[in-house]
Amino acid sequence: MSKIRIGIGEAERQAEAGTGQTLLEVLREAGAPIAAPCGGLGRCGKCRVRLTDAAGSREVLACQTLVTGDAWVETDAPGGGAILTESADTAAVDPGAEGLGAAVDLGTTTVVVELVDLKTGKRRGTESAWNAQAAYGADVITRAQYCMEKADGLETLHKVIRGQVDTLLRRLDCEKKDLKEIFVAGNTVMQHLFAGLDPRSIAVAPFTPLTLFDGDEPQEPGLAYAPCVAGYVGGDITAGLLASGLYEREERSLFLDIGTNGEMALGGRDGFLCCAVASGPAFEGAGIACGMTGVEGAVSHARFDGARLSLDVIGGGKPRGICGSGLIDLTAALCQKGIISAGGLLLGPDEAPEEFADTLGEDENGNGIFYLTEDRSVYLTARDVRQLQLAKAAVAAGIQVLLQKAGLTVQDVGRLYLAGGFGSYMDVSSAAAIGMLPAALVQKTVLLGNASLTGARMALLDHTAREKLRAIQGACRYLELSGDADFSREFPDNMYFYEEDEDEWN
Ligand code: FES
Fold first, then answer.
1. Where are the domains of the chain?
2. Residue environment code for 471-493, b if the CB has 16+ CB neighbours within 10 A, otherwise e
3. Which of ligand 1's atoms lies nearest the C-alpha of 42?
4. How many helices (H) and strands (E) does the chain have?
């Protein structure tokens, strides 16, 4: 056995490792914070750590490095930054209810726990963290694959997420046994993992979950879940629709929750048409050369002031990378300046407008690179633009197909509701400028904050809200887009960065 000392920022942990183990496995077992968006396949380059052992000190990819002896491994302390804990106030409580409960927003990227007084409905405290399952993959597919590949994969992921919620509760000076009930809202895969149910069937066609959490799942005392619509439209969406109240409105609205998957619902009082698109991890900063989640050091917004690029950096310090909202702003700004063509080509210094030549370079294949910082440590590549094109095309095509199947045009949509962290931080005008969202809806946008958390709290406090959740689930008609001819046609059309042209949406 080798002894591994793990430095996490200022803190330190000890672990033991057997021969043949990768550093990533050791870090996972030790519960050290490490992001492994590609699940350890060596593709994303985001599991970089500093390793000091008999061979010296160097940076390595944790997933590609075998332990060969005693070592000292340094990882970044979990960053601060923008976990969306903001949720709307709610009023209704069950008559006669007493004690404490917890509402949990179980996101793929972040987890938020609220401690709530069941009698008054008041929030006693909120704690949040980056989902500890990030060490097993950035998205739900990678985590479901981990369950396929490892005999104890499901048990591991189940324990990790249960342990994390317990830790967040302890930070709120509370133990699970002190609570009357916990109400959980998350996507279908995350709810399966939390419940200890096998999510593998969701990762392969026809993407059927074991349960939709409508009461047929194994019951655990003191634990309840938001009902799901399908494998990729989960309890976070039914909870979000409940929180938005749009299920009671006559007008037709579009509800969007964009992350590694883009989940959407179009409708109102008469029911919803829902779908999900694989927007990929670009919006979470994965698969992007200098991509990162929205933590300290991430460029969250970007705009040109003449030829000068001005950046907003989370935490205000030196830029370390680009998060999803920054990527959208930057792309919109570069398109506007003619540095990215309508087809998505990032131009090199010889082809782009002359005034930007100093900020541009080329890779060995002649593809353009745009440098955001003078020291050239943060940059955007042609491949990054391609990743964003794929992600934004999926979202835009999903919206268009929903509109078509519902027999509506964008003018028929009363409001655009954006739920979740990414939707709250991105600049809606930039998203419209790159053709991801209809420009006609920019002025009609309502930001919901953490709608999944609001919905979970409503259901925790008020049993009539749970009936409404079930009614919403029943009113949602799911549209499977993989293999859908309309989606297959719309998707490539939306790869372009159009000039603002509303006709594209009709
Ligand atoms: S490269 Fe190691 S987790 Fe992706």
1. 2-75, 282-386
2. ebbebbbbbebeebeebeebbee
3. 1
4. 13, 22
Q: Read off the pTM.
A: 0.88
What pLDDT score was predicted for residue 7?
Answer: 87
Mean pLDDT of all residues in 278-287 = 80
Pocket of ligand 1 contains residue 301 by CB under 6 Å: no
Ligand 1 center–CA 420 separation, angstroms: 26
Q: Are strands 413-419 and 445-449 parallel, antiparallel or unpaired?
A: parallel
Which atom of ligand 1 lies at the shortest distance from residue 62's CA? 2
Q: How many angstroms separate the CA atoms of 244 and 420, rounded? A: 12
Q: Which of 13, 78, 7 is nearest to 49 (CA)?
A: 7
pLDDT of residue 498: 66
Q: At what angle do helices 153-171 and 188-195 cross, to 10 degrees?
A: 90
| Cβ 369 under 6 angstroms from ligand 1 | no
Res 32: pLDDT = 84
Between 423 and 362, name the one with better pLDDT: 362
Per CATH, the number for 2-75 is 3.10.20.30
User: Relative to the CA of 47, which ligand 1 atom is closest?
Assistant: 2
Q: Could you report the per-residue pLDDT of 191-223, keeping only the tens digit for each?
A: 999 999 999 999 998 999 999 999 888 899 999
